[in-house]
Amino acid sequence: MRRIPAFRGYIFDLDGTVYRGDRLLPGARETIEGLRAAGRRVVFLSNKPIDTRESYARKLRCLGVPTRTADVINSSFVLARYLGARSPGARLFVIGERPLLAELRRAGFRIVANGDRADWVVIAFDRTFDYAKLTGALHAVRRGARLIATNPDRTCPVEGGEIPDCAAMIGAVEGATAKRVEVIVGKPSRITLDVCLAQMGLRARDCLMIGDRLETDIRMAREAGMAGALVLTGGTARRTLRRSPIKPDYVLGDIREPLGAG
User: Fold this and answer.
1) Residue 215 pLDDT more than 70?
2) Residue 206 and residue 208: Cα distance in Å, rounded?
3) Known catalytic residue: 13?
4) Is the model's pTM score more than 0.85?
5) Which DSSP letter does residue 15 get?
6) Which domain, by its residues, includes 2?
7) Is the same domain home to 111 and 144?
8) Residues 96 and 177 in one domain
C-alpha cells in the first residue's frame, strides 16, 4: 500500500468512516487519539443537517472519542454561516428538521410559515417532507424567494439499506418551481471546505480528507488540490471505485490503516 505522509490537519467524514449507525468502526478511536497525540489538527465533517453539532460531538464522546462541539462541522452550520454573511436576518421558508431550524434561529434568521413572504427557501434532508412543504416552497418562490440547499447527497445509508436524501427534496422543488438551486453548501462545495480550513487555521494542501464517498468527500478534496483517502467501510465498494472517474490519492480498508500520524 502507498504510504500516507504526515499532514498537519485531518478532516474525517463521520457516518461510514468513523462510525456506522451507532457503532464505532474498528480502529477509529485509536487512530484519532494517535493523530491528536502527534499534534495534528482533527475536525469531523458531516453533510447531514438532521442533528446539531452538539449532538454529533455528544455521540462521538459516547462512542469513546473525546470531541468538542467546535471540532464538528455540518451542512446546517455551514449554511447558517453562509447566509449570515450575505443575508443576515433573512426570512427563510425551510424544508428541514428541527435541528436545522434551531441552527438557523440561533444565527438570527426568521423562519416563516407557508404563505408568508420569504427571502430564501432552504432545502435540506427532511424525513418529514410532504406535499404541504413542497407547496409552501412553490408559493415562496412565486413571491421572489431564492433557493439554497444543504447537501447534494442522493441517498442516506441506514441499517438494511438506503433512504432518499436531500437531492430528492431538491429535485421536487426544482421540478415544481422551474427554478434551480443557486447554492448547495455541503460537500463537495468549497464553501464547506473553507469553513473547515478556517477552523483548523490551515491550507488545503496541508490537510487530508478521509471519507467513504467518492462524489462528496473525495471530489471535494480533488477539486481543492487536497489529498483524499477513501475508506471502504461505508458507501463505496471497490467495483464502484474502479468505474468512477473520481479517484482518491489513497484507498484504505478502514481507518486502522496508517494515516501518517508520525
Assistant:
1) yes
2) 7
3) yes
4) yes
5) B
6) 1-42+204-262
7) yes
8) yes
Taking only the tens place, the pLDDT of each residue in 63-108 is 999 999 999 999 999 999 999 999 999 999 999 999 999 999 999 9
Q: Is residue 217 annotated as part of the catalytic site, yes or no? A: no
* Residue 130 grid cell: 410532504
Q: Which of 13, 71, 165, 212 is catalytic?
A: 13
* 116 and 171 inside one domain: yes
| Residue 167: inside a domain | yes
pLDDT tens by residue, 160-199 = 788 999 999 999 999 999 999 999 999 999 999 999 999 9
Residues 177, 253: one domain? no
Contact in structure between 209 and 220 (CB atoms under 8 Å): yes
Indicate whether 171 belongs to any domain.
yes
For the domain that residue 169 is a member of, what is the CATH number? 3.40.50.1000
Clarify whether residues 218 and 169 are in a common domain. Answer: no
Q: Does 56 fall in a domain?
A: no
Q: How far apart are CA 165 and CA 158, in angstroms?
A: 11
For residue 21, name the pLDDT band (cuts at 50, 70, 90): confident
Reading the block at residue 191, the C-alpha cell is 464553501
How confident is the model over 149-155, as a mean pLDDT? 96
**C-alpha to C-alpha distances, 184 to 83, 166, 233, nearest whole angstrom:** 12, 10, 26
The one-letter amino acid at 171: G
Dist. CA 111–CA 117, nearest whole Å: 10
Domain count for the chain, please give it: 2
- My answer on whether 210 and 120 are in the same domain is no
Catalytically annotated residue among 15, 51, 119, 126: 15
**What CA dihedral angle connects 29, 31, 37 and 39, to 10 degrees?**
-120
Q: Given this model, what pLDDT does residue 260 score?
A: 57
